[in-house]
Structure formats: structure tokens, C-alpha cells
Structure prediction request, 163 residues.
Amino acid sequence: MTGSDLLLRLKALFFHGRVESDLAEELRAHIEMETAKGIRAGLSPDEAHRAARISFGGAVHVAERCRDERGITWFEDFVKDLSYACRQCLRQKSFFVVAALTLALGIGATTAIFSAVNGVLLRPLPYRSPERVVNVWSSIPSKGIPQMGFALPDLEAVYDRNH
Prediction:
């Protein structure tokens, strides 16, 4: 995007009324030029005007294409949507309060759960070499117990034999 494109987009954004009147005037001028061309070709003024409008296409459609070329329709739509949302919030206050509380509770619960998960699962363990920490289990296959904890004396015996 060049500097002149940016300048034109800012002009369209901040001076919307003037840009729209300039667009309408330009479209009228094009239709008048086509009408004059038709009159020179021998048509009556009414027929020339009708033929100019037909050859030019729908003025509304052409104006919409010109507005799309400005590249700020997304921002204009956003402002319109925001304005509509504010009007609806003022009109239906109870719905707005319920929706805002639901969002607040959802965001708060999500933050709390993420904080807990981050503290417990995602952060590294607070040891010098957390990659060397192991989990030791015992088992009794004859009794069908594949994994179980140690009693304290057994754990101390494992600790003593560990190098």
C-alpha cells in the first residue's frame, strides 16, 4: 500500500460524507457524459439518458464496487455492528447483564483453571535437575497388582541401594 492509498483510505474513513457526495457526483458525471454521447449519436435526451444508465450499469452496484475498492468496508461494518450492539444492549438491559456475567464467569473460570494447570503441569519442577526425578512403583504380580506405592521401610531400602 502506497502513501497515497493510505491517505485516500484515511480520507474515506474520517470524511465519509464528503467522500460519498464526491462519489455520487462522479457517478452522475459519468452518466451525463454517456447521455451527451447518446445525444450526439442522434438519440432523444430521454432515450440517451436511459441508454446511458443501461450501459453504465446499476448505479448502486457501481457505487458499492467503488466503496469496496477503498478497502475500509470492514471497518465501517465493524462500527455499524458495534453501534447496533450498543443500541441492543441499551434496549434489552437484562439480556446484556446476563450475557456479561456469563462471559465474566467463563473468562474467570478459564483463567483459574489455566493458572492451576500451568502451576502443576506446565512449569518445570522446582529442582536443580528435574529431568533426573523419577517415579518408582512396586508391584505384586502374583496377586494381580501391577502397580502400587511403597511402604516407608521399603522406600528407605530402595533409597539406600540407589546410586
Q: What stands out?
A: The beta strands are 138-140, 145-148. Residues 27 and 44 are 21 Å apart (CA to CA). The first helix runs from residue 3 to 14. The longest strand covers residues 145-148.
